[in-house]
Design goal:
Distance between the termini: 39 Å
Protein name: G domain-containing protein
Strand content: 5-15%
Organism: Coprinopsis marcescibilis (Agaric fungus)
CATH architecture of the largest domain: 3-Layer(aba) Sandwich
Mean pLDDT: 85
Largest sheet: 6 strands, mixed
CATH topology of the largest domain: Rossmann fold
Shape: globular
InterPro entries: GTP-bd, P-loop_NTPase
Number of domains: 2
Radius of gyration: 20 Å
Number of helices: 13
GO molecular function: GTP binding
Strand order of the largest sheet: 2-3-1-4-5-6
CATH class of the largest domain: Alpha Beta
CATH superfamily of the largest domain: P-loop containing nucleotide triphosphate hydrolases
Number of strands: 6
Pfam family, one: MMR_HSR1
Helix content: 40-55%
Bound molecules: guanosine-5'-triphosphate, magnesium ion
């Protein structure tokens, strides 16, 4: 638990968790719509929701949980008095915090809440269907996410694409079926996880429980799937994600977890990219930030590269 205690110094966690809680972390890149999804669920219940930003900078900086009490009778019947805990997370590629810091904040919440015994009922990964390209960074972020979940966690994952409310407007400009085509392309990027039991869904920015791609129906699907993954008949199983299990049960330090090792690979590639851009102040700043993270992850860099990067500072 030392690792957990050390981690909690830099982050939030949920105190007084109940075994019966249905915990659902919401993950995905910065700006993908994680906080908007939670707001859409909470707004019509007049609860204070997470902050959402339409600026260019990342918005959510700490992991924060919200309790959701469904109005829908069918969902109420399914959860049968349990609390639904939605966990908003900051996305990788954040404007203000490094990927390693983001991973640390997520690890803190997952390991420190529920005395390290927390089991999630589902994990939602939100990615915007439009605009933008599926970049190398997007691919590596999903790889880190996959390692964070671990093999056991994959069947609890739902990939949700956001921004489906823009489909009609964009089709008018770019032709019929453009969103469906993009969705198919995303599914092919996620095919391994989809083949291993992850599912997918669509989201639109709406507060209406009856909206076409409503946050409510997606959440209901996720909870239904989570409750169906039973340990024994009539017993909710839940899953401990790999990141949590490796820190709590296997007592690994964060840098030794599979997710952090995957993150190292991403940083290595970024480092090579910046190195090839030549020597200027922006490149030096970016590479210094990456070197800091790699150092923390105990990557041994060739002395020559380090000298090249830091020698000019
Ligand atoms: N049209 C449309 N806009 C959306 C949708 N989801 C999110 N947005 C907008 O996208 C922007 C970013 O949304 P956020 O919910 O703050 O994204 P986030 O994933 O929480 O971002 P970080 O907190 O920075 O990690 C805001 O302007 C939202 O209004 C959607 O489904 N449709
Ligand atoms: Mg947010």
């Amino acid at each position: 638990m030392n690792q957990v205690r050390r981690l909690t110094q830099s982050g939030e966690c949920l105190e007084n968790g109940r075994d019966s809680d249905l915990v659902i972390p919401i993950m995905g890149p910065t700006g993908s719509g994680k906080s908007s999804f939670i707001r859409a669920l909470l707004n019509d219940l007049a609860s204070p929701g997470p902050e959402v930003s339409n600026g260019i900078n990342s918005c959510t900086s700490v992991v924060q949980h919200y309790f959701f009490e469904p109005k829908s009778k069918s969902l109420q019947a399914k959860i049968n008095g349990r609390r639904v805990v939605l966990v908003d997370t900051p996305g990788f590629d954040d404007t203000n915090a490094s990927d390693l810091e983001i991973l640390r904040r997520i690890a803190v919440w997952l390991t420190a809440s529920y005395g390290g015994q927390m089991k999630v009922a589902g994990i939602i990964y939100i990615y915007p269907i439009f605009p933008g390209r599926y970049t190398h960074n997007d691919r590596t972020n999903v790889k880190v996410f996959k390692k964070l979940c671990g093999n056991n966690g994959i069947k609890w994952v739902t990939f949700a694409t956001s921004r489906w409310d823009q489909e009609e407007a964009i089709e008018a400009l770019e032709g019929k079926g453009v969103f469906t085509t993009r969705e198919g392309q995303l599914h092919s990027h996620w095919k391994d996880m989809l083949a291993s039991g992850a599912t997918s869904g669509r989201l639109a920015k709406t507060n209406s429980p009856r909206g076409k791609y409503s946050a409510h129906s997606l959440l209901e699907e996720v909870i239904t799937k989570g409750l169906e993954n039973k340990a024994k008949e009539d017993e909710f199983a839940g899953v401990m994600v790999a990141l949590q299990e490796q820190i709590v049960k296997k007592k690994r330090n964060l840098p030794k977890t599979a997710a952090a090792r995957e993150l190292k690979k991403k940083l290595d590639v970024l480092m090579r990219e910046y190195n090839s851009l030549g020597d200027n102040e922006t490149v030096r700043q970016k590479t210094r930030a990456i070197v800091g993270q790699l150092d923390e992850l105990k990557i041994s860099l060739g002395g020559r590269i380090k000298l090249f990067l830091l020698g000019n500072s």
